[in-house]
Amino acid sequence: MNLTVLKLEVGEGIAWITINRPEALNALNTVFFREMEGVLNQLSGDKSVRVAVITGEGKAFVAGADIAEMAHMSPEEGSRFSQTGQAVFSHIEQMAIPVIAAINGFALGGGMELAMSCDFRIASSKARFGQPEVNLGLIPGYAGTQRLPRLVGLGHALYLLTTAEMIDAQTAFSIGLVQKVVEPEQLKEETLKIVQTIMAKGPQAVSLVKQVTRGGMLTDFESGCNLESDRFGSLFGPGSQGEEGMKAFLEKRKPEWK
To answer: Which domains are seen in the chain, by residue range?
Structure first.
């Protein structure tokens, strides 16, 4: 696959996806969405990949959508551009593997929406977050109005969405938007440690944790519990991952995941 605004490195079970438009602060455009969808499809077919990490090149994670591309859109074109972004970001959520955002710098507008579509977020202490769309007379278009309140609560979400205030990494951590803040030079190393921790666990169990947890958020409590019980049971039986994990525990050895 020929990539122009993304870089993809795959090795040792990890896919590193880097947004590579530093001259435009990694602004999201049509090419980005086309290439990201292609990368996600490629990774979905690669059973060797256990975890994916999305990050940015230069001083920005993503500083927003490409305003130069959007400026002359009609209402219909604007809606389609929104729907395209929503579909790609939903694909990230639906990936069977965990997808981590390693936020190296500005995560604004579409960049913050991209980060929120990942399963969790590790931020450089220099990262900055915000949804500045109302400054332009716009609203978020890539499900920011839907994901943000689900992550931080309605009050925090509406405050950030209506004031367009930019917050630092520690503030983002304090409201639950990011899960860990590290020094800039430690971002890749700390992200790799987290990735390796996840990869030491049962791969099927990790995938099902993501599936059941995200699925439960979209339904009622009882239906979520039923989904959990069904997937819990699927990990038992001869030759199952659960059998190996429990056997290894009782034998005081590391499990051999298949």
So the answer is: 6-199 (3.90.226.10), 203-250 (no CATH)
**Cα angle 117-119-121, degrees, rounded to a multiple of 5:** 90
Q: End-to-end alpha-carbon separation of the chain, Å? A: 29
133 is catalytic: yes
Q: What is the Cα–Cα distance from 231 to 241, expressed in whole angstroms?
A: 12
| Residues 28-48: tens digit of each pLDDT | 999 999 999 999 999 999 999
**Helix, strand, coil percentages in the chain from 3-state DSSP, rounded to 5:** 50, 15, 30
CA distance 109 to 141: 9
Instruction: Give the pLDDT confidence of 135-192 residue by residue, as tens digits.
Output: 999 999 999 999 999 999 999 999 999 999 999 999 999 999 999 999 999 999 999 9
* Active site (annotated) includes residue 113: yes
77, 133, 183, 251: the catalytic one is: 133
Q: Pairing state of beta strands 99-103 and 128-130?
A: unpaired
Element (H, E) at 52: strand 51-56
> Which of 224, 220, 194 has its CA nearest to residue 206?
194
Q: What is the pTM of this model?
A: 0.95
Angle between helices 241-250 and 203-217 (to 10 degrees): 120
Active-site hit among 23, 113, 185, 256: 113
User: What pLDDT score does 174 carry?
Assistant: 98
Q: Which class for 89: exposed (0-12), middle (13-18), buried (19 or more C-beta within 10 A)? A: buried
